[in-house]
Design goal:
This protein has 360 residues and is of the alpha/beta class. The chain folds into 2 domains: 285 residues, Spore Coat Polysaccharide Biosynthesis Protein SpsA, Chain A (Alpha-Beta Complex); 53 residues. The chain contains 13 helices and 13 strands. The strands form 3 sheets. It has a 7-stranded mixed sheet with strand order 3-2-1-4-7-6-8, with helices on both faces. A hairpin with a 2-residue loop joins strand 11 and strand 12. The N and C termini lie far apart (78 Å).
Length: 360
């Protein structure tokens, strides 16, 4: 395949139907291009790697230091976010591809990306904002505030060209996601992107409404159906739609994060949503959803609790020399969590006594 760029995504095995749907949409619109899917965990026996419509890269092949600790510290969603810069860096380091377009697995390509790829001939990094027009000029809208609080740019799409500036950005980004890819720190991997245009050269902000249309901006974009069923956004052919927060068990809602009713979405958006659900089903959704995430349990089968992940992520002294936290027992983690809670209670009690003494 004579093509110097690739589409890249990261998924866990129970989301393989999303990757298949993305890959099929790429193949339909850009038959000359290929798709690389980084799989966090390996599907169960019977899965055939060579039958997938994409190239498979397993996350364990990325050469990440302290791999088992890296795995353990994050939930499946956090992990797929944290791996983005590592995967892009790895591909650039081991291939001759000049451009990589990272897409979240829940994105559907609807139109050719020639214009976007053309911009990447000169740019090192391309980012897309969540919002490209305000919902109101009179006063801040609550939805607008909440969306911008998650980051100016959406981490579901990042375009990079193999330049010194882009590689520096990826190095910087992966060091932030190595241990700090949490919602309550900087909205996973996404919040860090706010600083990219200020810190690195060659960054282009793509404001075209046809890119990364999603639940957070459909209220401020005119998504309509034109002749022959083609969908346009603000008069331009739709290039890709991001079904962020989609729940197949909620067919009458565009997203779990939606703030307005499904009926308020345009007919074109509702049609695209219904068709996307059908594609997921056709691409093995029922089977893939039955494949539980491999790294959600200890070696003995005990389900991992959020507090245990945080002990590893934060580098608890008692666990710093543990190479494989999955081999530990539930009692070990629960004891450390209890000790931490006890220390916090004691600290608060001392602070309260100190305050009372100083203000008596």
């Amino acid at each position: 395949m004579n093509c110097n760029w690739r589409v890249v995504t990261v998924v866990t095995r129970n989301y393989l139907h999303f990757a298949r749907t993305l890959a099929a949409s790429v193949r339909q619109v850009h038959p000359e291009a290929g798709v690389i899917v980084c799989l966090v965990d390996e599907p169960p026996s019977g899965w055939q790697r060579d039958q997938e419509p994409f190239e498979v890269l397993f996350a364990c092949e990325l050469g990440i230091q302290n791999w088992k600790r890296f795995l353990f510290q994050y939930t499946p969603f956090e992990l797929t976010c944290a791996l983005k810069p590592f995967v892009l860096n790895h591909i650039f380091g081991g291939s001759e591809f000049k451009k990589l377009l990272y897409f979240d697995g829940d994105i559907l390509l609807c139109g050719r990306m020639d214009e976007l790829l053309g911009k990447l001939d000169l740019a090192s990094v391309i980012l897309t904002p969540h919002l490209t027009s305000p919902s109101s000029l009179a006063e801040p809208d609550r939805w607008e505030v909440d969306v911008l609080d998650t980051g100016v740019f959406n981490g579901g799409f990042v375009g990079v060209r193999n330049t010194e500036s882009a590689r520096s950005m990826l190095d910087w980004w992966q060091e932030r996601t190595r241990n700090w890819c949490k919602w309550n720190i900087n909205h996973h991997d996404q919040g860090w992107l706010n600083a990219v245009p200020a810190l690195f050269d060659g960054v282009v902000i793509e404001r075209g409404a046809e890119y990364n249309t999603a639940v957070w901006n459909t209220a401020t974009r005119n998504v309509s159906e034109e002749a022959a069923g083609r969908i346009s956004v603000d008069g331009r052919p739709l290039v890709f739609f991001h079904f962020a927060g989609l729940d197949p068990d909620m067919p009458d809602s565009l997203s779990r994060t939606a703030r307005r009713s499904y009926s308020q979405e345009s007919a074109a958006v509702r049609r695209l949503h219904r068709e996307y659900l059908a594609k997921l089903k056709a691409n093995g959704m029922a089977e893939c959803r039955g494949w539980c995430y491999e790294f959600d349990v200890l070696a003995d089968g005990t389900r991992i609790k959020p507090g245990w992940r945080e002990l590893v992520r934060s580098g608890h002294p008692a666990l710093q020399n543990v190479e494989n936290p999955f081999d530990l027992k539930e009692s070990k983690f629960d004891r450390l969590v209890w000790q931490q809670k006890k220390r916090k209670v004691q600290t608060r009690a001392i602070q309260a006594l100190s305050w009372a003494f100083n203000n008596s």
